[in-house]
Amino acid sequence: MEIEIHDKLGALAHPKRLDLFRLLMRRYPGSVAAGQIADALGLKPNTTSTYLNALKSAGLIEQSRSGTSLQYTANLPAVRGLFDSLLGECCQNRPDLCLQTPKGPFLKNPDRVMNALFICTGNSARSIMAEAILNDAGTGLFRAYSAGNAPTDGPNPTVLELLQKKDFDVSKLRSKSVEEFTVEDAPRMDFVFTVCDHAANEACPAWPGQPMSAHWGLPDPVKAEGTEAQKQLAFQQTYGLLRNRITAFASLPFETLDRISLQHKVDDIGRMSD
User: Fold this and answer.
1) Per residue in 212-269, pLDDT tens?
2) Burial of 207 by CB count in 10 Å (0-12 exposed, 13-18 middle, 19+ buried)?
3) pLDDT for 65-102, tens place per residue?
4) What is the Cα Rg of the chain in Å?
5) For 166-205, how does the pLDDT look when each residue is reduced to its tens digit (9 = 90+)?
6) Which of 5, 75, 145, 220 has minimal Cβ neighbours within 10 Å of its Cβ?
7) C-beta neighbour count of 15 within 10 angstroms
8) Residue ranges with strand state E in the chain
9) Which residues sit opposite 215 in a β-bridge?
10) 91 an active-site residue?
């Protein structure tokens, strides 16, 4: 049976279902376990299941299985179809009424330095590493920053020690809140990356200028267990993964890629595992 447009809109009409849908859109193209969704939104398991089934019945999300866990992801073609129906039928695709993707390359001025913000919850490890790596790998092209939704008192000492051993200048690295980047005179971001699942599950501010965003989730090395050597290895592995992703990112041809093509590229980089 064909799902009507009012079925999709009805599924999104409930505030909590809308919160759930927005969470999955923030995590797209990745999938999220039902239990993680419940924890992130403070919902009971049976309530989460009911909301997920409603969105799935409306065709807005898809379900898959990973082992014993049910995983959910946004059904992007269906979401696009919903907006195509709304905008195409109501405004006849008028470019002065409907939201249009900017034409041409993402970076129109090759001499402009782009700003990138890395976010994780505590801004003590992964995002700090990412800030340092991009400021090194993207010299002349990028200016990198990091922040947290609930920042700690300062960068993790093991992270600072690791970066110093690799000849990074750590003197300016500090833990800070995302709120620093929402004030009027804050740097205007071109890219915003979440590097932990918890931060990606939370609603982010409405960034000025509509920067491109992606989720590059990695396990938290601070939570690694085992011997001291195993814990140190976790930090080294996190650094290596971030270094590989950021090197690939900084090497993209920003002056030739349009916004949609670039979005696909940064999403693909977020799935790099080696």
Assistant:
1) 889 999 999 999 999 999 999 999 999 999 999 999 999 999 999 998 899 999 999 9
2) middle
3) 988 889 999 998 888 888 777 765 555 444 444 555 66
4) 20
5) 999 999 999 999 999 988 889 999 999 999 888 777 776 7
6) 5
7) 8
8) 32-33, 61-66, 69-74, 114-120, 142-148, 191-194, 212-215
9) 194
10) no
Q: How far apart are CA 120 and CA 44, in angstroms?
A: 25
pLDDT in tens, 48-57: 999 999 999 9
Task: Say if residues 38 and 82 touch (Cβ distance below 8 Å).
Answer: no
Q: By three-state DSSP, how is residue 210 classified?
A: coil
Overall pTM surpassing 0.90 (yes/no): no
Measured CA to CA, the distance from residue 211 to residue 121 in angstroms comes to: 20
Residue among 90, 91, 98, 204 flagged as catalytic: 204
Is 90 a known active-site residue? no
Pairwise CA distance, residues 66 & 130, whole Å: 29
The rounded distance, in Å, linking the Cα atoms of 122 and 152 is: 5
The Cα-based distances of 48 to 42, 53, 64, 121, 226 in angstroms read 9, 9, 16, 23, 34
- CA 190/CA 157 separation, integer angstroms: 29
